[in-house]
Amino acid sequence: MILQRNNLPNIDQVSEEMSHMLGDYNASEFRQFFVYYLQCQAGAKEFSTKLENLDSEFEMLDNHNPIHHMETRMKSPQSLLRKLTKKGYDFTFDNIKNNIFDIAGIRVITNYLEDINTVEKALTKQSDVTLIKRKDYISHPKPSGYRSLHLVVSVPVFRADGPVSTPVEIQLRTVGMDMWASLEHKLRYKTNVDKKKVEKYGDQLKDYSTELNQIETNMQEIFNNLQHK
Q1: Are 147 and 209 in contact (CB under 8 A)?
Q2: Which of 114, 172, 182, 228 has the maximum number of C-beta atoms within 10 A of its C-beta?
Q3: Mean pLDDT of successive 10-residue segments in the chain (229 residues)?
Q4: Which residues pair with 15 in a beta bridge?
Q5: What are the chain's domains?
Q6: What is this structure's pTM?
Q7: How far is 141 from 226, CA to CA, in rounded Å?
Q8: For residue 55, with 0-12 CB atoms within 10 Å meaning exposed, 13-18 middle and 19 or more buried, which class applies?
């Protein structure tokens, strides 16, 4: 079973934000971005459909759903501006298209650890899917304790003038990893507490990530044992 959660901005809102940031004088630049933004949104929908179909296939053939739920999101113009600025680029359409590959993103939450590898292999071996970038924060967690598999993949999006390869970021993580990442983010960035005070708990939060990973490893072993008849 997949519970699809969408975090997609209103197109009118995007239009208003972009007009404010680019100005009326740059109508051509705005149009290019707006068309590309919709293209990325369509790319996310393509991958959402692929993932739902894969999950249904595994349920039918193996009596197991690897995907617990999915969350789809689109970067806001403000978020794009912050990322471009951090990378040292001006806010132009070419800089966005050539340097930002996660305008559209899907977070795939799996039930078990091995489901991550299962979903990745099934998705990336499809003939119309191209793997652009892969970052494995599960085998090599971030210093904070963050664990997840990040993929940038592309798929053809069919526009009026023909198919266009479109990148989408897909994050694969377990229920436990997602719970830890969500709460850790809230503790670090969503509280009105001095950051130095929060940092005092950094090692403790990292230890909890390790403990959760061990629990999920044990749960995976139990699941595997139950599958053996």
Answers
A1: yes
A2: 172
A3: 58 66 64 89 97 96 95 90 90 90 97 98 98 98 97 95 95 98 88 80 95 98 89
A4: none
A5: 3-174 (3.30.460.10)
A6: 0.87
A7: 29
A8: buried
DSSP per residue over the chain, as a string? --EEEEEPPPHHHHHHHHHHHH-GGGHHHHHHHHHHHHHHHHHHHHHHHHHHHHHHHHHHHHS---EEEEEEEE--HHHHHHHHHHHT--S-HHHHHHH---SEEEEEEESSHHHHHHHHHHHHTSTT-EEEEEEETTTS--TT----EEEEEEEEEEETTEEEEEEEEEEEEEHHHHHHHHHHHHHHHSSSS-HHHHHTTHHHHHHHHHHHHHHHHHHHHHHHHHH--
Structure tokens at 54: 């894969």
Q: For residues 172 and 183, what is the distance between their CA atoms, to the nearest angstrom?
A: 17
Mean pLDDT score across all residues of the chain? 90
Pull the structure tokens for residue 226.
């139950």
Q: Which residue reads 């897909």 in tokens?
A: 170
